[in-house]
Write a structure and sequence with these properties.
The chain is 29% helix and 24% strand. The chain contains 13 helices and 19 strands. Strands 1, 2, 12, 13, 14, 15, 16, 17, 18 and 19 form a ten-stranded mixed β-sheet that branches. The chain has an eight-stranded parallel β-barrel with strand order 3-4-5-6-7-9-10-11, surrounded by seven helices. The protein binds pyridoxal-5'-phosphate. Pyridoxal-5'-phosphate (PLP) binds next to α11.
Length: 436
């Protein structure tokens, strides 16, 4: 029996291919016996649908299109492998992520290596492997030059992440209200010019790509228009001969829960504007540069749910608290106050009597609220609460604080597979260092 109302608490039930299963208390109890009283559910089919939707929106308008999945958003190896099989490149921002991509069998030529911190060894390794390497700062250029001197016969291809003003009517659209971004090589201050001059002294170095990722508050179309136009303009001005790709980064909206009440652009809306610019700017090119998009949140947010069993309900001076085997860290590591879509799978029939309650977690922190002021039927002990839209920045940002991290169960065509086991003491204690 599923109990949930689209009322004041901000809850709505999203359509999900697993809906029937999730509303069956008996089946959920069977899962509990196998996987524990809290776990993530990963919906593999939803991921495939997201991939195909993004791909067809862009590819139908600009055929030389590549998706570079942003690993940091959720680097569950199983998920990365599914995306790789679908055709996604791996967009990584550290050597750890790079090595993970290799471990899952990714072709290094399909790895896009971004990020502000790369060592000399990282850069040498990426060049040796023929990966797409986007440099963020001048210090990295020194390593590339060193490589070029050491191997004068090898052709070296690199990309540059650019930083330029994307403000709208003088107002910065960046997240958290930052007036300027700290990433990339600045165009306006002349650093780009300096970088290009330095690099062009080497016959065996080619700048083949330009990258521009900006995390904006509204994820609006206008930002992508500016990013794409600027990258194309700079590409044509400085590296027309060698330009192979324009990488507009990630940051687009995916499907957003209805309860967020946001009127967001669709994949088609983004693709229409971006591809129109690409087609216009490169209209007469026989070999048009690739367009790269690096989706993270939009690819994975709606592919994960978090299931937590109700352990207790109590009333303290008129306020109802529902304690679950879970924590705000499992679903909202940034601890924002918005309630995520949530449903209650109960063993009892619905009484339609709504009440106000908070859902709280197992940690000793007062602020461990998974949901605030929910208006719905009060959950009972042994019911399950299921939170939607928890696929982005959860499992990568979820330290084993107080309790072990929960397991992850992948669902694919009615099959349930454990793809991450619930942690044990073994993962807490490094036995190479500690012997007891
Ligand atoms: C370089 C780069 N690419 C892609 C992404 C993915 O962004 P999103 O998850 O908002 O799509 C990020 C996120 O910060 C990023 O830094």
């Amino acid at each position: 029996m599923v109990k949930s109302t689209g009322v004041e608490g901000g809850l709505t039930v999203q359509q999900n291919p697993l809906d029937d299963f999730l509303s069956d208390h008996k089946k959920m109890t069977e899962l509990e016996h196998q996987f524990g009283s809290s776990f993530y559910l990963f919906n593999t089919e939803q991921l495939r649908m997201n991939y195909h939707k993004i791909e067809s929106a862009f590819k139908s308008r600009y055929s030389n299109f590549i998706i570079g999945y942003s690993y940091k958003t959720n680097y569950l190896p199983y998920l990365c492998k599914v995306l790789s099989k679908l055709g996604a490149y791996a967009e990584v921002v550290s050597r750890l992520e790079y090595d993970l991509a290799l471990k899952i069998g990714e072709n290094p030529k399909r790895i896009i290596f971004n990020g502000p911190l790369k060592s000399r060894d990282d850069i040498f390794y990426a060049i040796d492997n023929g990966s797409l390497l986007n440099l963020d700062s001048l210090y990295e250029i020194k390593f590339v030059e060193e490589y070029a001197k050491q191997y004068p016969k090898r052709d070296i291809k690199i990309g540059l992440r650019l930083n330029f003003d994307i403000s709208e009517n003088g107002v910065s659209p960046l997240q958290e209200g930052y007036p300027i971004s700290r990433f990339g090589i600045c165009v306006e201050s002349g650093t780009l010019h300096q970088a290009i001059t330095e690099l062009s002294a080497y016959k065996n170095i080619k700048i083949v790509g330009l990258h521009g990722h900006f995390s904006t508050k509204k994820r609006n179309i206008e930002a992508y228009q500016k990013i794409t136009e600027t990258l194309c303009k700079i590409g044509k001005r400085y590296i027309e001969e060698s330009l192979e790709y324009i990488d507009i980064g990630g940051g687009i909206y995916g499907e957003v829960p209805k309860s967020f009440n946001l009127n967001t652009p669709s994949f088609d809306d983004y693709a229409t504007v971006v591809c129109e610019i690409m087609n216009r700017e490169f209209a007469h090119w026989t070999n048009k540069p690739a367009l790269i998009l690096e989706p993270g949140i939009s690819m994975v947010a709606n592919t994960f749910q978090f299931v937590a069993k109700v352990i207790e309900t109590k009333t303290i001076r008129g306020q109802n608290f529902v304690l679950v085997d879970g924590s705000v860290h499992n679903i909202k590591p940034t601890m924002h106050k918005n309630n995520l879509p949530m449903r209650i799978t109960s063993q009892y029939p619905s009484s339609t009597k709504a009440t106000v309650f908070h859902v709280v977690g197992y940690t000793c922190m007062e602020k461990d609220y998974l949901a605030h002021e929910v208006v719905a039927e009060l959950p009972q002990i042994n019911d399950f609460l299921i939170f939607d839209n928890v696929g982005a920045y959860t499992i990568v940002f979820n330290p084993p604080f107080i309790k072990e991290r929960p397991g992850i169960v992948a669902v694919d065509e009615d099959e349930f597979m454990i793809v991450r086991k619930k942690e044990t003491l073994k993962q807490f204690v490094n036995e190479e260092i500690y012997t007891f």
